[in-house]
Design brief:
There is one protein chain. With 219 residues, the chain is α/β, with parallel strands linked by helices. The chain has one domain: Aldolase class I (TIM Barrel). The protein is built from nine helices and eight strands. Strands 7-6-5-4-3-2-1-8 form an eight-stranded parallel beta sheet. The longest helix has 14 residues.
């Protein structure tokens, strides 16, 4: 079994905590909307690939300035060495923005449902739209209202065997999907760097996730 890939989410400038987790992860997500000013200096200290993310408020982020400035920050990240840019499927002028991103790096097209988990057919349509938009990685995150929602988001991964998919459900009821996503073919899963520093509901720490995966791989 291939070792599951973990993406640690950076939400502040705590370089000591980042360094502690760096050997345990495959990549980082740099949350520009949470870090704020100074993120450009922080990324110079990273020794692993990183995804630039500047999350919209209506998809769970905290970006407070206008939309043009938000996208501008993401495009700036393409010049600063980002290995991938996370941009929401619902972004205005997406058809113009993705080609600009892909001139420099890879593109992760994301979709977040903060209220529930859509039917599987609807989620398939969303991923198809992400692929048609030019996604190198498709990310679909829902909110679990039942254990069965875990099964639905994981089934989405097998529905697109030739694509790179990250599909999981937020909230305490979605924990199983976070754990299983990279074990059933998902590209990677997300984890917090420290307890109490989660960027989304239901995240567990890198250290705890690593311990679980080591037990699975050893078995």
């Amino acid at each position: 079994m291939n070792r599951p890939r973990i993406c640690a989410v950076i939400i502040n400038k705590d370089l000591a905590a980042i360094r502690k987790n760096e050997p345990l992860v495959a990549l980082f997500e740099v949350r520009i909307d949470l870090i704020g000013d100074g993120w450009q200096e922080l990324i110079k200290q990273l020794n692993k690939p990183w995804i630039a993310c500047n999350r919209r408020a209506d998809e769970g982020g905290r970006w407070e300035n206008d939309e043009a400035r938000r996208v501008e920050e993401l495009l700036k990240a393409t010049e600063l060495g980002a290995d991938m840019i996370d941009i929401e499927l619902r972004t205005a002028n997406l058809v113009k923005t993705i080609p600009l991103i892909k001139q420099k790096t890879k593109c992760l097209v994301s979709f977040h449902d903060l209220k529930g988990t859509p039917p599987l057919d609807e989620m398939r349509e969303i991923v198809q739209r992400q692929l048609e938009a030019g996604a190198d990685v498709c990310k679909l995150v829902t909110t679990a209202q039942s254990f069965e929602d875990n099964i639905a988001v994981l089934q989405l991964i097998s529905a697109f065997p030739d694509a790179k998919i990250v599909s999981l459900a937020m909230g305490h009821l979605g924990l199983a999907s976070r754990l299983l996503c990279p074990l059933v073919g998902g590209d990677f899963t997300y984890a917090s760097i420290e307890k109490g520093k989660e960027s989304a509901a239901g995240q567990i720490t890198v250290a705890d996730l690593k311990k679980i995966y080591e037990m699975v791989v050893e078995c």
